[in-house]
Amino acid sequence: MTALFHLLNEYGYIVLFVSLMLQLIIVPIPSEALLSYVGVLAFQGKMNLILSLLSAGAGGITGASISYWAGYKLGVPFIQKYGRYLHMGPEKMAKMEVWYKKYGKVLLLISYIIPGICHIASILSGIIKLPYRSFAIFSYIGVFLWAGLYIFLGYLLGPKWDQYQSEIEKWLVLGGIVLGIGVIAFIVIKANRQYVKESIILIFQATFKRFGSFFKTKILILEILVFFAILIALMVRMIQAIINHQFGQFNTFCLNAMSFLSSPGWHGIMNTVYALSSVKVLSAISVLTVLVIALNKKNILLELLFFACTIVGTLLFSFGIHWLFHFLFSDISAQFPDAPSMFFVSILSFFFIMLIRHYRNYQVIFFLMLGYLFMLTAYFISGVYLVHAEPSDMMAGYVFSAVWVSGMLFALETFRFISLLKRELNHSSEQ
């Protein structure tokens, strides 16, 4: 980075142009830091602010255009030849092309703020043959907004840029991610607006106009929603506590409470318990979950879909939240939240939920709940005992995964409820 700054001081606009061009072709260059430094140089009078913006924009436009045409000329033949091996046949490519032509232009505007997305967005635009005119309008505006944002920040802060650089970059990236998620959510809802509209009307009618119908189902969904909200509040409180380093007493208390495990005789038992989070054991629990769903013979595809979403979502959530916290806060525990705990709790919880959901014997449910709580407690103790995990990290893993699983359960029961309402509506119309 120092060498790049030195070249920028020596050759100015040419280095700026080439750097932005290479960055948007796919060469990993820390362009945000570079653009901010250009703003500082403009503040010091060593570079012209307008010429800097034009050079950066021209370089970014050139790089984005090269990526677009590379995808257009090389990506399409590759997909046509090898796409079937990647589950990207002609039909799927045609659907993707229609979707991207409709919504991809909006994503191009914000893609440059999100790390790693800008390269993919330009290449993908070429692969699905987004009209060059549409690509150019939205992509080039996005390039100038991105370059101008960082250059003007560096210019406004001037010599104080070094003091605030890391914090500003963190919050800009976070803002880009949140905005990207919001845009994707908007696009998904808009693409399924008819289904969403019909579902909202059905739920409204069943809730307020026919209060007594499906009463138990509605109470169940309400209970899950309340539990979900409580867990979110607890998760937010835990985040505040970890940022403010308020977990010291909790960790000390847990370690003191587990002092009786200092005897070597416990080591074998703890090894066995901690192995519950191994790939083999979690795979076995997943297979059992699938069997429970299949044996129930009701809403099989829906429950399997949400089970898959639970597993994949836990994977993305655990790595994503871990990266985000350590990107934003460098002084928190390296393992916060504990990833193995998240996987263990998510898969085990979904398994027990399916067991409890499909068995009406309250005595069996009671003992299942006791077994579930015992396994959670035993695993928590084994993690602290064996791998010396911070109790707060383990607890965060439990709470974060509980938020995800309860959210999936709320969505599952809501979809199940909508299915029941539609079935009743169809039955009434047939009569």
Automatic annotation (TrEMBL):
Q: Which UniProt keywords apply?
A: Membrane, Transmembrane, Transmembrane helix
Work out whether the entry's keyword set contains Nucleotidyltransferase: no
Presence of keyword Transmembrane = yes
The highest taxon in the source lineage is Bacteria
VTT domain residues = 29-155
Membrane-spanning parts = 12-37, 49-70, 106-128, 135-158, 170-189, 219-243, 273-295, 304-329, 341-357, 364-386, 398-418
Pfam families, per database record = VTT_dom (PF09335)
> What family is it from?
Belongs to the DedA family.
Protein name from the UniProt record: VTT domain-containing protein
Organism whose genome encodes this protein: Heyndrickxia acidicola
